[in-house]
Specification:
heterodimer, A: alpha+beta, SH3 type barrels, 2 domains, six-stranded mixed β-sheet, two-stranded antiparallel sheet, B: 552 residues, alpha+beta, Immunoglobulin-like, 4 domains, five-stranded mixed β-sheet, 31 strands, disordered N terminus
Chain lengths: 256, 552
């Protein structure tokens, strides 16, 4: 009974470990099957590993989608940043990838920031309770702490609700209206990473972070983010690609 | 206002960049009859006299004054002398302002660079009090060329606020480098000041044909009524203007030669070697700079190949900006040329084929190579197999990494997304604090209410009243009377308002009664029969003291 937490932890980690073992043994299909067996929201490790499988299968856009999703969950993981940069460098004819919606999301997750805000707010609350009980003064530092906590918390909430990034899995035509008869504003290559701004039926409005903004079909890409946008699908374990063979074993890195 | 402060701050930041005398111009464009100001900043020492500014006949220069300021440069404090001048445009054309010659106290002199002022003739453009326009510069360009989209407002009255709504540009993309400089400044003509607010946005042409924009929208807030000195709460009137069209025609490039680099613009290529004699295995640095009015996004210098040397990428810096209405991009690279065998090694010239919009044709830019004298290396004459310049270790590691990084063997398979719970966490964390604040506020309100409800204690102190008598006779006598009444009331143990002075005086006994009645009578004569008032306060004071003493 005392070993139950350990057993639960090992079970929770098993798909990642078993899949990687199969991968290193030259069984990519078995590895992808293990990584895809996850029920619920896949972790950064699963997204990262499925991205590698997609990359090896030659599906660069799918690999990018998985790695961007991994980055949202584990923004400080160096391996993810490295592989993203590597894959982006191989894509031709796509515009510069959009960064995360806010700069702090490059190094912290919304939950981390929001959690820190909540912690500061709780500390300030306790201090205020104590002041109220003892009828002490000195409210200004506590109110300042509460304000900082509130700002961080609200930033975290905003980040958590920020629309994800759409990674195009096929070439798409950018239109000025959510309709196939809309005027063409240009084309976007598979692998383009774009902000998702709005949705209208089977269309989503995207923005390349610079000049180009318009509508593309929702099924032309996968959203790498925690929030659903219209009919655009979030990248998940169902989006997997199996390479023919893995080749020589690759060095195994720890999550960074 | 904010933009003006920012501009001033930027100018202040720019100040230390000038070691020799330097101009700081308010504008480089005027129309005939307009005036503007400029400043000459001198940091090389104390000038003997006002600097002499050469200028064309088409411009009139007037010295306005000077002011010394102390600036910090590289950790040292320096004295800067700022000479203000006014320039008035007399004739249309391009006019040189400068060089300015500064004579210093130690006998030497220095000259500034020459600034160019463009004077136009579109005087009628501002017939009304307001004029705004949008334009591409130039209006006819080539595919791949950088054009500037300019929107400009010229107004006799200074707008409170402006907002430009830029239309969507078809067939244009923004270059990776290049800001959107917005300038606010004022020029002056015979009819007064003209406020100018202009912004330049660089775009690369990606399409061909007619790329004209039909309209842009300008919203202007005019001040109707000034409410406060800094304009925070002024009443304003908002007006919307549709501007345009902005014509632009893009021509397709002629068939390109094989070596075309993809660059479109008028560029200058320069190169230099840091040394010409090296040993096998050593490197010489070939610094190359490419500068021009075209976009250099993603450009990399080609690496020449030949016998006896190898060329490796070195440090690279690229930058682009809009300066004085012109887009200028610059790319500087330091290539490492490594000798791989001894003897004379010929490095071929660097050649880059670009399309020149001003010539309408492809041109080949050339930076001469050199001949390196290569001596045998320390270990004799050996072939060098590989070489990498000193680079950041992480970059080197990434460069050496043959592939993507491998899968993770550890980690949880699922993650719990707590995002939707964040607002609840915040509410839970903040709720006790809000409650405590409410409690504290409630207590404070209660205390305040109680303090207000408590009846105010009226302090009766006739002696204090007598110590602070007013100068005015009428009020002075009234105060003395009040002091006497208060003393009598305290003596009798009744409220002042309920006191009958006559009864109180008649009920006194002995010497005090006589003193009090006499003082009261003298007081009444002084107050109501214009009798003498000298010494009255002292008499009443004595009576009051005795009354209080008895009352105690």
């Amino acid at each position: 009974m005392r070993l139950l937490p350990l057993w639960l932890l090992l079970s929770a980690c098993a798909p990642v470990a078993d899949g990687t073992e199969a991968w290193e043994a030259g069984d990519p299909a078995g590895a992808v099957e293990q990584w895809s067996s996850v029920e619920g929201r896949p972790s950064a490790a699963v997204h990262y590993n499925l991205g590698i499988a997609a990359y090896r299968a030659g599906d660069r856009p799918l690999a990018l989608a998985h790695w961007r999703a991994a980055r949202r969950i584990a923004p400080r993981a160096g391996d993810v940043v490295h592989n993203l940069a590597h894959a982006r460098g191989e894509l031709k004819g796509v515009s510069a990838p959009v960064p995360e919606p806010t700069s702090w999301m490059e190094f912290a997750t919304p939950v981390e920031l929001g959690g820190l805000g909540a912690l500061l707010l709780a500390l300030a609350s306790l201090g205020l309770l104590r002041s109220a009980r003892r009828e002490e003064g000195g409210l200004v530092p506590l109110l300042g702490l509460a304000a900082v906590g509130l700002v961080l918390g609200v930033s975290g909430v905003q980040g958590a609700n920020a629309p994800g990034v759409l990674v195009l899995t096929r070439d798409a035509v950018l239109r000025d209206a959510p309709d196939a008869t809309g005027r063409e504003r240009g084309s976007l290559g598979a692998g383009s990473e774009l902000y998702v701004e709005a949705a209208a039926g089977p269309w989503v409005r995207v923005w390349d972070g610079a000049e180009r903004r318009g509508w593309v079909p929702a099924d032309s890409g996968l959203v790498a983010g925690p929030v659903d946008v219209g009919q655009a699908r979030r990248v998940g374990v169902a989006d997997a690609a199996v390479p023919e063979r893995t080749g020589p074993p690759e060095p195994t890195d720890e999550p960074g | 206002m904010v933009a003006r402060l920012l501009l001033t701050w930027l100018l202040m930041l720019a100040v230390p960049a000038f070691a020799a005398p330097g101009f700081v111009m308010t504008t480089n464009q005027l129309v005939v009859g307009e005036s503007s100001t400029f400043e000459l900043q001198v940091t090389g020492g104390k000038p003997l006299s006002v600097p002499r500014v050469e200028h064309s006949d088409g411009v009139e220069i007037e010295y306005l004054g000077s002011s010394p300021v102390t600036i910090r440069q590289g950790g040292r404090l320096l004295q800067m002398y700022r000479f203000q001048f006014k320039m008035t445009a007399l004739e249309p054309g391009e006019h040189a302002i400068g060089p300015a010659t500064v004579e210093y106290a130690d006998g030497h002199d220095e000259q500034s660079i020459v600034h160019t002022l463009t004077v136009g003739t579109d005087k009628d453009a501002l017939l009304s009090n307001f004029e705004a326009d949008v334009a591409y510069m130039p209006e006819e360009a080539w595919e791949g060329q950088v054009v500037l989209y300019r929107y400009r407002l010229r107004s006799r009255a200074r707008p409170s606020r402006t907002r430009w709504i830029e239309p969507e540009h078809q067939g244009l993309v923004a270059p990776r480098d290049g800001d959107r400089p917005r300038r606010e400044y004022a020029v002056e003509d015979a009819e007064g000041m003209i406020w100018i607010d202009e912004t330049y946005i660089p775009y690369i042409i990606t399409g061909t044909g007619d790329l004209s924009l039909q309209s842009a929208i300008l919203q202007v807030w005019w001040t109707v009524e000034r409410v406060d000195p800094i304009g925070l709460f002024d009443r304003t009137r908002n007006e919307t203007y549709h501007l345009g069209p902005a014509p632009l025609t893009a021509k397709a490039l002629p068939p390109a030669p094989d070596a075309f680099s993809g660059l479109v613009g008028d560029f200058v290529l320069r190169g230099s070697f840091d040394k010409r004699a090296i040993k096998v295995g050593e490197s010489a640095t070939w610094e190359l700079s490419l500068m021009g009015n075209g976009a250099l996004d993603g450009f990399a210098f080609p690496k020449p190949e030949g016998k006896g040397f190898r060329v490796y990428d070195g440090t690279l810096a690229s930058d682009a900006a809009v300066r004085d209405g012109k887009y200028i991009a610059k790319n500087v690279a330091q290539l490492s040329v490594v000798a791989t065998k001894a003897g004379k090694v010929r490095i071929p010239p660097m050649e880059i084929v670009v399309f020149s919009p001003s010539k309408g044709d492809y041109v080949t830019l050339r930076a001469e190579g050199t001949t390196l004298e290569v001596a045998p290396g320390a270990g004799g004459e050996t072939e060098v197999e590989s070489f990498a310049p000193d680079v950041d270790e992480t970059i080197a590691e990434a460069a050496e990494a043959p592939d993507i990084r491998g899968p993770w063997a550890r980690g949880l398979a699922t993650t719990v997304w707590l995002g939707p719970g964040l607002p609840w966490m915040l509410m839970l964390a903040g709720a006790p604090g809000v409650g405590a604040l409410g409690l504290i506020a409630g207590r404070r309100v209660k205390r305040w209410s109680e303090a207000r409800a408590k009846p105010r204690e009226v302090v009766i102190d006739p002696e204090a009243r007598l110590r602070h008598l007013p100068e005015d006779r009428h009020h002075r006598l009234a105060e003395i009377d009040a002091a006497l009444r208060e003393a009598l009331a305290l003596h009798r143990g009744v409220e002042v308002a309920a006191l009958d002075r006559g009864t109180a005086l008649s009920e006194l006994d002995g010497e005090l009664a006589e003193q009090a009645r006499a003082a009261a009578a003298a007081l009444d004569r002084a107050r109501f029969a214009d009798g003498p008032s000298e010494g009255l306060a002292e008499r009443v004071s004595v009576v009051v003291s005795r009354l209080l003493k008895e009352a105690a």
